[in-house]
Amino acid sequence: MEYRYCGNSGIQLPVLSLGLWHNFGSVDDFGVATDMIVKAFDAGVCHFDLANNYGPVPGSAEENFGLILRENLRSHRDEIFISTKAGHEMWPGVYGNGSSRKNLIASCNQSLHRMGLDYVDVFYSHRYDGVTPIEETMQALVDIVRSGKALYAGISKYPRDLQLKCYEYLRAHDVPCLLSQYRASMFVREPLLPITDSDHGNTMHSAMQVAKEEGSGFIAFSPLAQGLLTDKYLKGIPQNSRAAKSTGFLQVSQVTPERIDAARLLNEIARRRGQSLAQMSLAWLLRHEGMTSVIIGTSSVAQLEDNLRTLDNLTFSEEELTAIDAVLSSQSL
After folding, report:
1. Is 261 inside any structural domain?
2. What is the 3-state secondary structure (H, E, C) of the chain?
3. How many folded domains does the chain comprise?
4. Is residue 172 part of a domain?
5. Tens place of pLDDT for every residue, the chain, 333 residues?
6. CATH number for position 205
7. Domain residues for 50?
8. Is residue 11 part of a domain?
9. Residue 255 lies in a domain
């Protein structure tokens, strides 16, 4: 396993981290979940990424992870980096959602209870809710760290115009932002690319570049675009796939002909590299300067092992990068 430092900190993360967004909840096979977590740890994946609402049902991924940790990895707690988050809807009523101090502190306490932990390694504000002042949310993170319930603070999915404000507030209160988490993939490149201010014509740094300049690590989730950057959809929508379900985060409308065509072309490039499309997609993200780690989500040990083989080839030739850019720039993705 390769490890990279998080920004200006002394913390290193594996370049591939395991996320428990799907496949670790109460509706999933507990034995398979256990095997994946233990196999990941044995392979050097020492970072496990959770959130209070992961499941389904919400909270059950944390409960299962805590049980797996106690039953299989109890003596290894100090070798493991655990992150969790709060900010999306979690319980009924006006206090179970959003970025308020009330929600974040209550959520942190509940997460620790579910996992049976005294502290997590990093606690994120999972999102900006559009209402709560940044100062209130960031001060809640500061106080959670100072209370010892988390060792570090992080932000997730914050708009670019507020990202710098978060860093400045946390740094001014001696709790610098350890990690910034964003959705990123070949099909979602916005956090990786500079943008132009349409009103003034100024070029703004990417979210990843801002994080790097401000000393924060950067970690990507959904690196395979919910399966679109695998061989699953190369021939259309399989009956048992996420997109075939009426509920979930990947809908039929997202599996566009343009994306399927792009995936087919990218798959040919991956094949010439001796990789699967999924492996090349992960390697492509990891080549970006400033990328600390990429969060993978797996449903089996075999899929986990396949993702881990990404590490066998992380380099790209200029010809390969040019070919990939040509595919991505020519499609309406």
Report:
1. no
2. CCEEECCCCCCEEECEEEECCCCCCCCCCHHHHHHHHHHHHHCCCCEEECCCCCCCCCCHHHHHHHHHHHHHCHHHHHHCEEEEEECCCCCCCCCCCCCCHHHHHHHHHHHHHHHCCCCEEEEEECCCCCCCCHHHHHHHHHHHHHCCCEEEEEEECCCHHHHHHHHHHHHHCCCCEEEEEEECCCCCCHHHCCEECCCCCCEECCHHHHHHHCCCEEEEECCCHHHCCCHHHCCCCCCCCHHHCCCCCCCHHHCCHHHHHHHHHHHHHHHHHCCCHHHHHHHHHHCCCCCCEEEECCCCHHHHHHHHHHHHCCCCCHHHHHHHHHHHHHCCC
3. 1
4. yes
5. 999 999 999 999 999 999 999 999 999 999 999 999 999 999 999 999 999 999 999 999 999 999 999 999 999 999 999 999 999 999 999 999 999 999 999 999 999 999 999 999 999 999 999 999 999 999 999 999 999 999 999 999 999 889 999 999 999 999 999 999 999 999 999 999 887 665 555 566 899 999 999 999 999 999 999 899 998 877 766 555 554 444 444 445 567 788 888 999 999 999 999 999 999 999 999 999 999 999 999 999 999 999 999 999 999 999 999 999 999 987 665
6. 3.20.20.100
7. 3-230+276-316
8. yes
9. no
| Tokens at 162, concatenated | 């507020």
- Token output for 76: 């290894």
